[in-house]
Amino acid sequence: xxxxxxxxxxxxxxxxxxxxxxxxxxxxxxxxxxxxxxxxxxxxxxxxxxxxxxxxxxxxxxxxxxxxxxxxxxxxxxxxxxxxxxxxxxxxxxxxxxxxxxxxxxxxxxxxxxxxxxxxxxxxxxxxxxxxxxxxxxxxxxxxxxxxxxxxxxxxxxxxxxxxxxxxxxxxxxxxxxxxxxxxxxxxxxxxxxxxxxxxxxxxxxxxxxxxxxxxxxxxxxxxxxxxxxxxxxxxxxxxxxxxxxxxxxxxxxxxxxxx
Length: 260
Fold this sequence. Notes:
By secondary structure, the chain is α+β, with helices and mostly antiparallel strands. Helices cover 36% and strands 26% of the residues. The protein has eight helices and eight strands. The protein has a six-stranded antiparallel beta barrel. The protein starts with a helix and ends with a helix.
């Protein structure tokens, strides 16, 4: 029993679902995220005033999470939060900067492409907080990828696209609950109103990805969207973390052999 106890302690909570089965639930502190409403940004607005700035706004709400979660690393380098600024003022300043041609190049007609979103966000971080952050992205991300990112206290934004084609929508993920088939719930901050929401996950397809039954803030009719892309950021790992990561994988392999 002693060896198994030590192994479970080393692997940590993220391995427990894999060992014992059942739904997986991972959440982050909702209060740590930003609350930027994309309509408050001056960039990415159509001639009729419709805002397409969900990409920059979703990134800002993640930046606030990084600053609240890792204050000794980021301080207020990404978003100004304190006097003489308010958090709302700082979020708008950063959002407009991100949406500009210098970073994401958000279009007033089509919004932000994924390549512009990811490259613009990483460029912004590298400019204002150099050598602090590891970024990653995944096409058609699995629920496991989202959960492991949340479990490691990374921020994560996703781009959801309509199954029938059309303009996608960015949100900042705060939690996920799912089973082996990809059914469950997705928790997120929606830049359409800057508030917390929950949507149903309707399964996973290896080509289309996780399907989300998304209801826009203030709406009542669900729209079925697929998670096409995900991006994460987290502080550069400490050396001890780099050592434990491969050790955890080795321990899982041992456990699998002993359970046969």
